[in-house]
Amino acid sequence: MVHEKGFFDRLFDFLNYTFLVFLGLLFLYPVVHVLAASFSNPLQLMQHQGPILFPLGFSLDGYKVILSNPNIISGYLNTIINTTAGTLINIFFTSLGAYAISRNDFMAKKFFTTMFVITMYIGGGMIPGYLLVKALGMVDTRWSLLIPGCISTYNMIVLKTCFAQLPRSVEDSAKIDGANDYIILFRILFPMAKATIMVLVLFCAVGHWNSWFAPMLYIRKKTLYPLALIIREILISNSTGGGTMETVFDKAAMEGLNYLDELMKYSTIVITTAPILCVYPFVQKYFVKGVMLGSIKE
Does one domain contain both 50 and 172? Predict the structure, then answer.
């Protein structure tokens, strides 16, 4: 039986929808501003103050300069490599740990779970972390960005909870057929926990794609700079006063292009964030289901 909504119900719906629309526009505005500014005429952009909802004129000069620079191209390639390799390493080791501590017959389950949780509250710090990476010979190598953070305890606990909720009868059947732990994990549990796995893949990929602090600590070779570190230097270049973007662009290449400073900042932001934004629609359907599946307490 359908009940007709009363006045207060309709008023609540109206206020709720109005608030959500306002919130959506508030979140959408920075995206529109940056996108419109990246396609604007550089001279008009320099003279403009205030919000930008539509391109001021139309120009691709910012994208042309950025994409023609080898530092940006190498940064893009480094970011893609770091994101792909780092996400695979994260999911592999996180899955191993989650599978181990989700087994009730694992004798050291409580001990290792406690050790993992402690790392969420107590860390060695930046300087000891750097000294450890240096002692292992990983400074100025890609491994310094992949190995130290290869396991996220939070992600492991979420995945462990998800594994613990899956029916054990499927695993028992696989063991009867002679399957070992690796087959059970990667061929049986992984497909069953696909939603949670996809959410963790998204978390890890975004983290690696946006990472700039670890590269700033461990990487000195510009050929290994990820895109996030390059865009950081572009965005703070004007405040340093040490030449316009000379840390990223060759000085000779920047002669006569100072008027493109502001335009290149917006264009670089678009180039940096566009791939991640394109991934979201394909993962969104797993997001709510995956997070909720792995967040229910045993």
Answer: no
The angle subtended at Cα 23 by Cα 20 and Cα 25, nearest 5°, is: 110
Residue-level length of the chain = 298
Residues 6 or more apart whose CB falls under 8 angstroms from that of 218 comprise 130, 133, 138, 139, 140, 144, 145
Kindly report, residue by residue over 215-253, the tens digit of the pLDDT. 988 988 888 889 888 878 766 764 444 444 555 555 444
d(CA 96, CA 26): 41
Rounded to 5°, angle at Cα 28 from 22 and 29: 90
Distance CA 101, CA 244 (A): 52
Residue 153 shares a structural domain with residue 177:
yes
Given 15, 34, 59, the domain boundary residue is 59
Assessment of whether the complete model's pTM goes beyond 0.85 = no
Asked whether 193 and 103 are in contact (CB, 8 A), the reply is no
The answer on 38 and 182 residing in a single domain is no
140 and 276 housed in the same domain: yes
Q: Packing angle between helix 70-101 and helix 153-165, nearest 10 degrees? A: 50
DSSP per-residue codes, 114-178: HHHHHHHH----HHHHHHHHHHTT-TTSTHHHHSTTS--HHHHHHHHHHHHHS-HHHHHHHHHTT
Domain count, the chain: 2
User: pLDDT of 191-213, one tens digit each?
Assistant: 888 888 888 888 888 889 888 88
Q: Which pLDDT belongs to residue 243?
A: 45
**In terms of domains, do 270 and 128 share one?**
yes
pLDDT category, 268, cuts 50, 70, 90? confident
- Could you tell me the residue range of the domain that residue 14 belongs to? 1-59
| pLDDT tens-digit map of 15-47 | 999 999 999 888 888 888 888 888 888 877 777
Long-range contacts of 119-125 (CB under 8 A, 24+ apart): 119/153, 120/153, 120/154
Residues 99 and 224 in one domain: yes
Helices and strands: H and E segment counts in the chain = 16, 0
